[in-house]
Amino acid sequence: MDITRARTAAVTDLGGWQPAEVDSAVWRLRVSMDDGTGTLARIAIRLADLGCNILGVSVLPIPGGVLDEIVVRPQPGLTKQDLAEAIQAEGCVCGGITDAEVRELVDTATATLGAATAAIAERDRVHDAVRDVLTADLVTTVPAAEANPGRTEGGHRVVFDLDGATALVARRRWTPFVQLELTRASALIALIGAARANPGAPAAVVCDDGAAVVLREGVPGDADAVVALHTRCSKTTLFQRYHSGTPTVPRRWLHRLLTPARGLSVLAVCGREVVALGQLLGPPNRPSAEVSLLVEDSWQRNGLGTALLARLAELAVLRGHGELKAVCLPGEEGVPRTAARAGLAAARAEGDRNLVEIALPARLPVPGA
Fold it and tell me: InterPro entries attached here (predicted)?
């Protein structure tokens, strides 16, 4: 998979100056300076002397000083090289100048939230969000094995891991990335993944036979549908879930099944029927949580259990867990097989052969990236 998002704005790399042929309406420049009193004021005065109207200023802390990003409307006839030389005459370093647009002039928090909103709503816009937040020239998705994070190209290239299997590679010619920007982009990627795993947001899945099912959080109003699910399940299926000979679920269990005190439930709903029920039990930010599945007999071996376990795994990562545990008696291999189909590593616990341990990724994947 190789998906790319690129900026089309003209770029000036100050490593080898190329004066602009055509004046830009708005320029974005980055100036490295010490954090002394009056330094920014001197730069502002020099810009005014050159006829530049300052439209916006952002300050990025860097080791040994600050990096100011300044957006200006230059006076006609002024070149980027003249501007850089004037800044350097004030004892500062102009790290790059690129063309910009007035519509980009929003504060960083607003820009980041706007990019996150768009990426959450449209799954193929993660590239656009990262590109906008970093003002990058190019953002590409590559297999993680090909990302080569050690190749930084002098700070002009950075890699973000998405899910262990894929990565985003961002490049920017006009100025190197700084740590504050990279931290902001990492937080954006994590936010997008967390928002997409919100249990309150239903997720549609398609089973192997083409049937469409919705996965959503269970609520008390689902009690009757959950009772009906249990009455349609065979004794074998109920025993594998509860490890007892109960023929159906007692009413007193329903509240704990749908809204557990330290966890959550996810239902698979087709039409008005609940056809599967999954539970995730355990306080947030603990190393492990318990997971359980109940899939109606006629829906088994159709990919539904796999989708339900994958959803519970996403939610477990979001809640800060690193491992899932499931009670699985000797001879029962349904949970390990389901975990393997969901791309999760499962194994019997060393000290308890009735317990299956399922390892989770360190972070949420970002679907659609």
Answer: ACT-like_dom_sf, ACT_dom, Acyl_CoA_acyltransferase, GNAT_dom
Cα 212 from Cα 52, distance rounded (Å): 59
**Is residue 7 within 8 Å of residue 136, measured between CB atoms?**
yes
- Asked whether 317 and 284 are in contact (CB, 8 A), the reply is no
Q: Distance between alpha carbon 277 and the CA centroid of its chain, in Å?
A: 26
Q: What is the DSSP string of 346-366?
A: EEE-SS-TTEEEEE--SS---
3-state secondary structure of 275: strand
Query: How far is Cα 191 from Cα 113, in angstroms, rounded to an integer?
Result: 10
Judged against a pLDDT cut of 60, whether residue 10 lies above it is answered with: no
Q: What are 26-37's pLDDT values in tens digits? A: 999 999 988 778
Do residues 44 and 56 make contact, with C-beta atoms less than 8 angstroms apart? no
Amino acid at 203: A
> Could you give the count of Cα atoms lying within 13 Å of 288 in the half-sphere of its Cβ?
12
Domain with CATH 3.40.630.30 in the chain: 203-359
Which CATH number applies to 4-104: 3.30.420.40, 3.30.70.260, 3.40.50.2300, 3.10.450.350? 3.30.70.260
Residue 107, pLDDT above cutoff 50: yes
Q: Is the pLDDT of residue 275 over 60?
A: yes
Q: What is the pLDDT of residues 194-209, one digit of tens each?
A: 777 776 688 899 999 9
Average pLDDT over the chain, rounded to whole?
85
Cβ atoms of residues 326 and 337 within 8 Å: no
Q: Which residues of 328-356 are buried (b: 16+ CB within 10 A; e: fewer)?
A: beeebebbbebbeebebebeeeeeeeeeb
The H-assigned helical ranges of 259-303 are none
Residue closest to 213 by CA, chosen among 320, 346, 150, 306 = 306
